[in-house]
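ERR on first pass: missing label on line 2. Operator R.T. fixed the label and resubmitted. Corrected input:
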Amino acid sequence: MIDFLEANSIYIVLVVVLLIWTGLFIFIFKLDVKVSRLEQAIMTKPANKSDQSN
Amino acid sequence: MIRKAWFKLLIYFWITLVVIIAILSPNTIGMLDETTKNMYFHVPMAITATVAFFSALWHSLQYLRSKTIEYDLKALSSAELGFVFNILAMLTGAFWAKFMWGEYWHWDPRETTIFLLFLIYSAYFALRSAIESPEKRGNLSAVYNIFAFPSVIFLYFILPRLIPGLHPGSPEKDTTDVNPSVSSSTDPEIRIILYLSMIGFIALFFWLKNLTYRIHLLDEQTEHYL
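pass 2 clean. output:
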């Protein structure tokens, strides 16, 4: 494995780019899940009090 | 569809595949040499920005017809992401230009037009932040957005093809060889990778737009709690 990467350095670039993309993807995916959870929290919250006051 | 997990995972595997093919592909176009690979990432940024600005135009029209805040927020999310993709195209282009042309920035027609787009959409955000009333902000920024979009077509696709410049795809006086661009005569393998990449990034845009829109909507809804 190490020998192969030493001989073909473009694969090192490939691994680096894929690691960055995977990391960013996981981050965005988790952000999406968190937003969904917030949406749920707001929807299930009983009667929006300040709606009447406004 | 955009909110389904399989769609997001498909984007992941699609772009992963594009990265693998793009980096390992041995194809080159003329003097671009190894930086031909840049084309698989730099060009889709500009194309995705175009799609994003079109999406902003679309939602602005929807807003003016219905006057519902949701469309205003969708237009805003699209314009924000288009702005980000536009900046990414600028930065990747500038870095590449340093090694190909010798300077990060020297006002080639392409560089000038992309900078103008940057200014035009900066003005959109400035306009939005200057207006307190949501209805007035929605109306004015939607109209601005509709007038901003034709400039995307002129500045991305028309002007750089009319004025001689260094950027690939610009008209060149004497030869056709030094300044390649993607056309029907380009190696089909290169075109396929480029198109796959465009599709991947456009899909990524729609996911990010959905996410940004939902965050803006939450922001709007929670304002009542504050």
